[in-house]
């Protein structure tokens, strides 16, 4: 196949339809999430050499030893966050390629995203601009600390696995707000959904996942 033909195939509606069909088969039900996945051009968030694989349901490398999350996981985390009610303001920890933030940007009014690796943040900022995604604000920071100046958030998504739940993140949740994050426990990672109530938090285990580790400090 010529480069041109594969280019058309890769971005065609059919290719994205197949991905959305697969997510449906795997239990994603929220139509808002499925149409956000349909609308965001994932091939723009990966290196050109990998763009023919952008609509496969797999994680892919994005440089700096990091990965763009698997679409199913992006959908699952987004669905878990939205199930809590209307979200105006959401924080993401771990911008990476910017894909998860771009999906969230279709669904909530304001997305705040922090990344510890400057180089990744630089390219994701350029991409948001090029794709005319104007409701995402970015910051070069250690996400363990959240984004204090913008708190409280209706939802927080962490896209790297920590060993403990960062207290600052829980503190930056609005009452009724949800934190969705992978936690490392006994050598495996579990996806947790923590909802902040009037007096204390409730935690639900959403199953096993694989994420890159959440690291301290800037790079
Ligand atoms: N959401 C991203 C997934 C990227 S992988 C996407 O859709 O592409 C996880 C990202 O978390 C990596 O880019 C990594 O650098 C970042 N990360 C890890 N620890 C972090 C921390 N303490 N603060 C902010 N970002 C962090």
TrEMBL record:
Where does this one sit in the cell?
Answer: Cytoplasm
Q: Does the keyword Transferase apply?
A: yes
Segments forming a coiled coil: none
Which residues are the active-site ones? Answer: 69
In Gene Ontology terms, what is one molecular function of this protein? protein-L-isoaspartate (D-aspartate) O-methyltransferase activity
Predominantly, its location class is cytoplasm
GO CC term, one of those recorded:
cytoplasm
Q: What is its EC number?
A: 2.1.1.77
Q: Which InterPro entries match?
A: PCMT, SAM-dependent_MTases_sf
Give me the reactions it catalyses: [protein]-L-isoaspartate + S-adenosyl-L-methionine = [protein]-L-isoaspartate alpha-methyl ester + S-adenosyl-L-homocysteine
User: Which PANTHER family does this chain map to?
Assistant: PROTEIN-L-ISOASPARTATE O-METHYLTRANSFERASE (PTHR11579), PROTEIN-L-ISOASPARTATE(D-ASPARTATE) O-METHYLTRANSFERASE (PTHR11579:SF0)
Give the family this protein belongs to, as stated in its UniProt record: Belongs to the methyltransferase superfamily. L-isoaspartyl/D-aspartyl protein methyltransferase family.
Role noted for this protein: Catalyzes the methyl esterification of L-isoaspartyl residues in peptides and proteins that result from spontaneous decomposition of normal L-aspartyl and L-asparaginyl residues. It plays a role in the repair and/or degradation of damaged proteins.
Q: Can you name this protein?
A: Protein-L-isoaspartate O-methyltransferase
Q: Which organism is it from?
A: Marinihelvus fidelis
Taxonomically, what lineage is the organism? Bacteria, Pseudomonadati, Pseudomonadota, Gammaproteobacteria, Chromatiales
């Amino acid at each position: 196949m010529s480069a041109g033909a594969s280019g058309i195939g890769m971005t065609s509606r059919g290719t994205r339809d197949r991905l959305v069909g697969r997510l449906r088969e795997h239990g994603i039900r929220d139509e808002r999430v499925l149409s956000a996945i349909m609308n965001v051009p994932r091939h723009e968030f990966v290196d050109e050499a990998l763009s023919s694989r952008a609509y496969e349901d797999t994680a892919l490398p994005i440089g700096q030893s990091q990965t763009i999350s698997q679409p199913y996981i992006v959908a699952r985390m987004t669905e878990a966050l939205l199930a809590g009610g209307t979200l105006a303001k959401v924080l993401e920890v771990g911008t990476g390629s910017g894909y998860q933030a771009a999906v969230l940007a279709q669904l909530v009014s304001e997305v705040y995203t922090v990344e510890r690796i400057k180089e990744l943040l630089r390219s994701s900022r350029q991409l948001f601009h090029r794709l005319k995604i104007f409701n995402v604000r970015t910051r070069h920071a250690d996400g363990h600390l959240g984004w204090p100046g913008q708190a409280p958030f209706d939802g927080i998504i962490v896209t790297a696995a920590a060993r403990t739940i960062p207290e600052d993140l829980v503190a930056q949740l609005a009452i009724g707000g949800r934190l969705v994050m992978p936690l490392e426990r006994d050598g495996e990672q579990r996806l947790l959904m923590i909802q902040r109530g009037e007096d204390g938090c409730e935690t639900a285990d959403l199953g096993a996942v694989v994420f890159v580790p959440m690291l301290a400090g800037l790079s």
